[in-house]
Amino acid sequence: MVKRKSIYAEGFSHKNPIPAACRIGSMVFSGSIQGTDPASGEYGSTIEEQSRLMFDHVRRICLAAQLEPTDIIKMHVWMNDRSQRAALNKEWLALFPDPDSRPARHTMQASLDGGKLMECDFIAVKGGADA
After folding, report:
1. Known SUPFAM superfamilies for this protein (predicted)?
2. CA-to-CA distance for 45 and 10, rounded, in angstroms?
């Protein structure tokens, strides 16, 4: 039987007792990922800064889970204001530059709390892009 393994990433944590992600077999599901400064834990002051910090955390979590960004198959993004997707798309294109190898994405408008302007989660399959 394959056991669940919690993934913790240096420079990223939740306030609640939950890991950054969880793996069972080749599947990895992240928890909520926000645009927080790794040193202070504070949210970035602009949508651009939060987007950059959020994608930096995605990279950290991938590294901790022994994943490559190409292993991500789906990302969900929640934004206070979806009309600000330009900031999201800038970082999205930086992480996934190949139009033939991008994960699916669903961006939804949501009323986020505590200064969050956006947050995301992802699903990845280790080796998924090569299968």
Report:
1. YjgF-like
2. 22
CB 73 within 8 A of CB 103: yes
Angle, alpha carbons 72-24-41 (nearest 5°): 60
Among the CATH numbers 3.40.50.10860, 3.30.1330.40, 3.30.930.10, 3.30.365.10, which is that of 5-125?
3.30.1330.40
Q: Is the pLDDT of residue 2 over 90?
A: no
Measured between alpha carbons, how far is 54 from 127 in angstroms, rounded to an integer?
Answer: 23
12, with CB counted inside 10 A (0-12, 13-18, 19+), is buried
pTM beyond 0.90, yes or no = yes
